[in-house]
Amino acid sequence: MALGLLRRRRSRSGPTPASGVPLPLPAGAGAYSCEVVDPMGQPLGGAEVTVTARDSHRVAAHGTTDPYGLFMAALPPGSYSVMITAEGLTPARSDVAIAADTALPPARVALLPARQLELPPPGTWLFDPPHTAIRFIAKHVGMAHVHGRFTRFTGGIRIAPDMRESQVSVRIDAASITTGNRTRDNHLRSADFLDVEHYPYIDFTSTRFVYQGGSKWTLNGTLTMHGTSRSVGLDTTYLGTVNGGYEQELRCAALAKTELHREDFTLNWRSMLARGIAVVGPTVQLELDVQAMYRTSETPTPPE
């Protein structure tokens, strides 16, 4: 509300703090503004700005920078903490004091590259099922969301010396789908949906890794489900490596997400609606929360 009010007033009055002409403000309010730039000094649109009151710890203003990297907010007098974040860059925090009837000069904030996590050593990494989850969220037609997961799967990662040439493969037992409702689960396994009798597995095989900056990657590959193969891209966040687990073995972790359209895999939800069957909507959010163990002759076998 504060940001919208300030922008409406600016559109009627014209000048901005950058021009050296004070902004009109609500009676007794002050103004904070900033210009956010990337490591190359270019305006950074879409950076997230959060202004928090230091006494109450409540968020007083929240939003994103415009295409020119600018953010402005009208605020009550007081002390505030400002946090600015953007994908793949190191967050910046500062403290500001807002005085009544005063617009602070725009603060120029340069975000630096985030520290890149050390990539896993080349070799074969196997999914650790007890510490890995394959989840999904689907919109229940006309109602709330359905949350579910697959409980049986295998997978592995072959890390190449050039990370972009690495490969991932996952095989999911389609019959292991569970949503916490036996009737619904049996229906999802039936010929109306996954048809697990004829298509017992859901398979994903990667084709390439694309680096997006920071700890972000896009994992492109082919997903085969219900007898149909489609190209998909998984938005992946690499979480690093650590020694830990059963016998302090080396393991890595990542979180990958994508959105699937069921009609792409010949799961015709419209025909089911016409028959009065309302189970889940046309899109499904898929999430893989993976821990993988570095495979050596001494790597312990994960428990079932």
From TrEMBL:
Superkingdom of origin: Bacteria
Entry's family note: Belongs to the UPF0312 family.
Segments of this protein annotated with the region Disordered: 1-24
Name this protein carries in UniProt: YceI family protein
Every Lipid/polyisoprenoid-binding YceI-like domain range: 124-293
Organism: Streptomyces labedae
Residue ranges, compositional bias (Basic residues): 1-12
Family matches, as Gene3D superfamilies: Carboxypeptidase-like, regulatory domain, Lipid/polyisoprenoid-binding, YceI-like
